[in-house]
Amino acid sequence: MELVGAHLSNAEIAARLCISVRTVESHVSSLLRKLEVPDRRALARRALTPARPAPVLPTPLTSFIGRVSERAELTEMIKAYR
């Protein structure tokens, strides 16, 4: 998408990436479909807009801090079954 955003042609993108023009056409077509944009210009604009931040992951409900005895028990169980 970055190279489409730089307004390069399919042939120029193919030359930079050492792949066939047909492969570039296929990937551009897939991007247009998946991102639901009508044309290369819209795809180029989309490439220039900053990505949305990743969602904040929930904090774990428990931690292993202070659970030394449980960790030791698990270690012994694993050793017993090996």
Automatic annotation (TrEMBL):
Annotated protein name in UniProt: Regulatory protein, luxR family
GO BP terms, alphabetized: regulation of DNA-templated transcription
Lineage start: Bacteria, Bacillati, Actinomycetota, Actinomycetes, Streptosporangiales
Domain HTH luxR-type span(s) in chain numbering: 1-51
Transmembrane intervals: none
PROSITE patterns in the record: HTH_LUXR_2
Taxonomic source organism: Nonomuraea jiangxiensis
InterPro entries: Sig_transdc_resp-reg_C-effctor, Tscrpt_reg_LuxR_C, WH-like_DNA-bd_sf
GO MF term list: DNA binding
Keywords for this protein: DNA-binding, Transcription, Transcription regulation
Superkingdom per UniProt: Bacteria
